[in-house]
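fold description:
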Amino acid sequence: MATYEFTVSVRTQYLPEQSDPERTNFVFTYSITIKNTGTVPAQLISRHWVITDANNHVEEVRGLGVVGHQPLLQPNEQFEYTSGTALQTQQGSMTGEYFCVAEDGHQFEVKIPEFVLSLPRTLH
């Protein structure tokens, strides 16, 4: 029986050298690992992000692929990439989904679990 599943893990980092706190500009990177944990080869086609800062300002981003790639992942294969975003607050969060198409034509979405963007030592 075919299963269609990717797992997503995230690591984040604050970039003080690219940030300007006096102008309320805080830059973060996020490194994502996407692993095909299903039984059918599948390709990541597009992404949808919901980025929320500490003032509840929401920005949505949609686009094809990730960092210029639309990786085709075999079962147990993974793809890692790093991207970034800027917030007007010291903390925020991101969540979203990837739209994927399996080799057999089945379409499915992969939920990206919400993760926090925060300056070091600012969360309690």
